[in-house]
Amino acid sequence: MKKLTNDENGITLVELLATIVLISIVGALAYSLLSQGYSNYQRVNAESEMRDEADIIMSTLVKDLFSARSSEVQLTNSCSSNGFATTQLTISKKNLPVKKIIFKPSSINGNEGMVMINNLPINFSDNVSISLYPCTSNAYNITTDDQVSYTIQFQLEVEKNNDKHSMDFENTFNLISN
After folding, report:
1. Is the dihedral of CA 94, 97, 103, 104 positive or negative?
2. In Å, how far are 56, 72, 102 from 125, measured between CA atoms?
3. SS3 12
4. DSSP tag of 141
5. Exposed e or buried b for every residue in 87-106, given b needs 16+ CB within 10 A?
6. Enclosing H/E stretch for 28
């Protein structure tokens, strides 16, 4: 006859549950870290794209204003019919054609803006748009207090994976005083 032995090979239910709980906690932490890392990657990618677009806008504008005299530049800020600010900067240099820089509402979508230089729009990359200031805020894309120091400010938006990211840009420069 066989003798019964008390053989305790295997694991108990408590040990199994403890292992599952520990693996679940480690898995949740790993998922959280990966999810946060991906979210940060998307945000940094969107900010980088907006900075690239802002560099294009600023370099295009400053290139034309870099050697302008204050007497050669005229700024006009107004309110468009849809309630958003419109800004026009006209540069009239001797022996050169007149150059107009305009921040105005887009004809396609009224709350989005567009930047035009001599009636040619500056094209943004996919999903990037410029926001306009409402007339009620008394804010304009280009401002000056003394016709020598000008401030260009605008906000860009980009949509990445159904998340909207926006960033404000501002640059102040001085013209050659007469």
Report:
1. positive
2. 11, 32, 19
3. coil
4. S
5. bbbebeeeeeeebbbbbbbe
6. helix 13-65
Q: Are 138 and 33 contacting, i.e. CB atoms less than 8 angstroms apart?
A: no
pLDDT at residue 110, as a whole number: 56
Q: What is the pTM of this model?
A: 0.72
**Dihedral sign from CA coordinates of 78, 116, 139, 64:** negative
Cβ atoms of 96 and 108 within 8 Å: the answer is: no
Between CA 160 and CA 42 the distance in angstroms is 7
Residue 16 banded pLDDT, cuts 50, 70, 90: very high
Q: Which pLDDT band, with edges at 50, 70 and 90, does 46 fall under?
A: confident
Q: Are strands 85-91 and 99-105 parallel, antiparallel or unpaired?
A: antiparallel
Query: What's the one-letter identity of residue 48?
Result: S
**Partners of 131 in the β-ladder:** 112, 155
Query: CA–CA separation, 29 vs 125, rounded Å?
Result: 36
Nearest-angstrom CA–CA distance, 111 and 125: 18
CA atoms within 13 A on the CB side of 35: 6
3 — pLDDT class (breaks 50, 70, 90) = low
* Residues 93-125: tens digit of each pLDDT: 888 888 898 888 877 665 678 888 888 888 877
